[in-house]
């Protein structure tokens, strides 16, 4: 996971008080030192993957549940609630296996690609 300093560097020039992002599949909220809030809701249906770009890395949620976030404006700020919802991940893992995607099947079944 990126450090606060690395995240602040990437967020430089973005003036909004709330920044929504995705693609890492990792549910996380980060409050920057200037008060801005960055929220990544997690992933619905892809709890783990391996990628080679921009550098080789692995992301694993550790759970097969679908994940999302609810944001509510409260007293001039934002309240973030992360939700983890069970679904028929075994059926999705079986489909992945049927299509020769063993690593994806493992991620869908367990949240881990190993």
Automatic annotation (TrEMBL):
Domain of life of the source: Bacteria
Which InterPro entries is this protein grouped with? Metallo-depent_PP-like
Which named protein is this?
Answer: Calcineurin-like phosphoesterase superfamily domain-containing protein
What species was this sequence derived from? Bradyrhizobium brasilense
High-level lineage: Bacteria, Pseudomonadati, Pseudomonadota, Alphaproteobacteria, Hyphomicrobiales
């Amino acid at each position: 996971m990126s450090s606060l300093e690395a995240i602040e560097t990437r967020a430089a020039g973005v003036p909004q008080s709330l920044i929504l992002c995705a693609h890492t599949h990792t549910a996380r909220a980060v409050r920057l030192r200037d008060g801005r809030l960055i929220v990544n809701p997690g992933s619905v249906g892809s709890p783990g993957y391996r990628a080679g770009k921009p550098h080789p890395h692995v992301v694993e949620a550790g759970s097969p549940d679908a994940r999302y976030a609810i944001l509510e404006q409260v007293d001039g700020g934002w309240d973030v609630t992360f939700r983890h919802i069970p679904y028929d991940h075994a059926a999705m893992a079986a489909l992945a296996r049927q299509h020769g995607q063993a690593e994806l099947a493992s991620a869908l079944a367990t949240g881990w690609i190993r």
